[in-house]
């Protein structure tokens, strides 16, 4: 934990020939990030979706609140358990597709104006056939604040990035360019670059493939009309990807310019991390090597496509067997091979595939296992499933 010491000198008694009074405050951010979980309730529950957000308090104190959405009915409940603040949000209904979430923030203490905390988590709540289904995501500021954002999104959802403010004259024909590259995995080369250039009128939605862009305008007074002064309105660029897929992970660099100026209205980098499970289940197989000249008699192999978060392959080691194991990877396929030379007794070789999770959002990680039996027959080994 990084601490900052704020020293305050009380001079109120100085003119009375008293010594100054020193007040020392330890200023620190929460030691753990904002944690959010979202899940549908049991069929008998009266609400449709539940969000639980928690964070450890800091100094200045943390403020935990709901990111409200018009058209949604909900009730919320606060608790404070030994410095851990918890906010539960029970969504009863939404009139349309909505985003509901939590925001944790603290106000800086002068003069330590740089030591402030802000984080948020949001859940897409889609209304389909009168049912409400939650698609959770989590966004944080990128390394270049106000110019980039990192978002973690569960595959299969329609996802809209947080809106980016537009500064300048947007009431014209707009030019938009987007460059995409897959740079989310350091252990593999880029899988390609996608480029798009197009023009659209600021009141329209520009859609290409599964991407859509729109200028959202919010007038600062209710009686404003679209022909009123630009200074009385706040505009932002909205970027949506429909039906997010595993291959959508990567960086999207978007530039928006107006027809009447060469200056950029928006230059922003969206980085997307797609959360998904393996595309095919764990596969295990045993091979007889007794006809080869190798010292190994059997090989036990398990393989699974990788996912995000990454899948870890491991083996439950049997007793009384002599073997050698090897890990390999071919493209996105992870493989564990065990070469067996001898076993004193009948044995079971098992392989497990488990997927990690995140502290900052709720996911359903992949978990699977498989096993094959090795039996001793007249001083030789064989497998039941070879």
TrEMBL record:
Top-level taxon of origin: Eukaryota
Protein's UniProt name: Uncharacterized protein
Gene source species: Stichopus japonicus (Sea cucumber)
